[in-house]
Amino acid sequence: MKILNILRPYGLTLLRSYSLTVLLSCSLTVFVLAQEAWTLEQCIRYACDNNIQLKQQELLVNQDENNLLQSKLGLLPNINASGNFNSSKGKVLDQNTFTIVDGATVNSLTGSIGSSVTLFKGLQQKNTIDRNQFSLFASIQNVEKLKNDLSLNIALYYLQIIHAQEQLAVAENQLQLTHLQVERTSALVEAGSVPEGDLFEIQSQAAREELQVVTARNTLELARLNLAQLLDLETKTNFQVVVPDFSNLGVSEATHSIEEVFANAETIMPQVKAAEYNLKASEKQLSINKGYRSPTLSFSVGSGSRYSSASSKAMKDGEGNVYFVDYPFREQVKDNINSYLGVGLNIPIFNGWQVQTGVNNARLNVQNYQYQLQLTKNTLYKEIQQAHADAVAALKQYMAATKAVASMEEAFRYTSQRYEVGLMNFVDYSTAKTRLTAAQSDLLQAKFEYIFKTKVLDFYNGRSITL
Predict the structure, then answer these.
(1) Which one, 43, 68, 144, 413, has the greatest CB density within 10 A?
(2) 53 with 146: CB under 8 angstroms?
(3) How far apart are CA 440 and CA 301, in angstroms?
(4) Residue 92 has pLDDT above 80, yes or no
């Protein structure tokens, strides 16, 4: 509507016909491209599903899940089996009779199975489970932090594309105005109403504006490329985005103070949660190290048997005489079965001060994570301060730019009318037009700065990033 207001003084039927053609062409183009255009939500969803760094962080989550599961399975008794086969020749000790067998090859086989379980170990196992649980929670929050950073970057690049599209539209509209003025001036020169120098000047203006259109188009393509690369798209050609309706852009000052936003943000921001979970994990590690001072009580049970080819079985005849016969494998294994039950107690007394050193280092690690948590909160508070200040400044700049455009449009309309009746030279006309173009560009920049800065502030206040 602003461009039409500028063009209305010319009253040219050709302009209306040309504008209608351009409008229809743009509408058809938008309809075609809309079939492939991406919304901001689609861009964020695609990035969360395909970003390599995010996938790497999710692998760390999977590793922490495995560590947690392993620490829980560590509470179960272990079961182990063993077997050993030996073939010996010469003077060999028969394990069954404990006699020396000389000159024969002796084959022996032993086997056992056993189980043991730790009954008490200074609560180290429980604290290990808790530590791994907090480490898992921290890793999950790190994933969320990476998603938030990715979403903010995508929103910024997305708005840069929309801004570049509008800048291109402004440059093209200005060029259309200049082309129409070239046609009009050319007719006046032919009629002898204005000197030919005016035509040369306005043609030069058209050439400069054609360069501005090319620059704006290159800026748009670069903005599209930046977002496509951020999304890691395989194909980066003809990448289009959906342009939201900003015609009813609500302009208002931030309703929440910095302290209110921070009070909400420190309870929901994943970087704060991750720092809190890391602190809790370090406290559990301190408890684990203290547990090394405690005695360890364990219980074990097992069974085994053996076989030797040199063994023979003693038998008695009816008269009580002893004689020896072959000792079958199954009988040996059955007769040689032995079982055991055991309870073990290990009391640490002195181990080169290793336990105390580990406790001291764990305490220092807890202090380090306490500092890290406070540093994270301080950084978050500064970010919110900056976001709040940026939003306030962007609002003021947007309001000032809006007033400036309104004034420049009125001034250009007045200048155009005077130029039409020959009361103003082309230099003054061109200056007024350049000022209007600059004001429109400043307004676009201010609008998108305001949109992005308010979205950032809303993000810290717990709202999702949408347009």
Answers:
(1) 43
(2) yes
(3) 86
(4) no
* Alpha carbon separation from 248 to 153, 199, 333, 423, 459 (Å, rounded): 25, 41, 90, 39, 21
User: What pTM value is reported for the model?
Assistant: 0.78
In DSSP terms, which residues pair with 116 in a beta bridge?
78, 300
Q: List, in order, residues 6 or more apart from 267 with CB less than 8 Å away.
A: none
351-364: string of b/e by CB count within 10 Å (b at 16+)? Answer: eeeebeebbeebee
* Domains (range + CATH), the chain: 2-76+121-145+234-294+349-460 (1.20.1600.10), 84-116+296-347 (no CATH)
pLDDT of residue 253: 66
* Chain segment 360-373, per-residue pLDDT in tens: 999 999 999 999 99
Residue 57 in this model has a pLDDT that exceeds 90: yes
State the burial class of residue 235 (Cβ atoms within 10 Å of its Cβ: 0-12, 13-18, 19+). Answer: exposed
Distance CA 443, CA 169 (A): 14
The answer to whether the beta carbons of residues 106 and 72 sit under 8 Å apart is no
